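Hey,
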Amino acid sequence: MSLKYLMCFVVLLTGAAAFAGIGTPLVREEHIVTVEEVEERWRLEWVSAPSPVCSPEEPEWSTCPCEGFAFGESGDLVLVRNRPGQEEERLPLSRLFDGDLDLPGVPDTLGQAILRRWDTYEKDIDESGAVDFASRVRARPIATVMRFGDYDHDGRATEFLLQVGTLPCGMKMSVAVGISRSTPNLHVFSTVEHPEKRLILTASQWQALLEAKSPIKVGDWLCGDHGSDTETELELGADADGIHAKKREYECKDDGGRGQFIGEEVL
């Protein structure tokens, strides 16, 4: 093949790749994680350039579906783990945003991961009408996503929370992602009783589990909340086997208080 035709082939191939949406991976965030005295590099990586969602230019950024996601971006996201002497490990995360929970920007964002890019401030609602509001938001530091903690109580802070949706109104529903002693590869955490299902809790419920020294009970859905005629609470705990969770449901009395026990579900 002559040089002329070879160059034409390269140009056509490059153009086809761009048309197909193939892009250069972009590192969103990277951390050093120490596992058994070995320093690993973990990073969140966009497969290609993400798109804005709940952006400061849009009035929707302050609505319930955007809670926890404003001011954000969406796209195909992968968690990458590099451990010296081992092959790179990759965990696709976009599949977690499957529409089972409320998401902003649907249908365009369905099946795409959404991450907050800039933190929201309490004063944002009052100042959002300013001409330079969006530019001031974009001048803020990039929000941190990977905040590591020992949520499964195995003695190692090798997991972080990833918000995967919301429930009315603005409840930030999250999963834990990382590694554990029982499952040393990257994975989404589940309970011991149901390893086939990801465990989805509110950010505050995960925090309560993180801080708990023994099994605890936390509120889930209160009587009267969005017209609910039942109340649910969770029992959360962790031991050497992993995380355990139960949901208990109760009737609601006419005065709004908790009534008789209905039943429980092992999560």
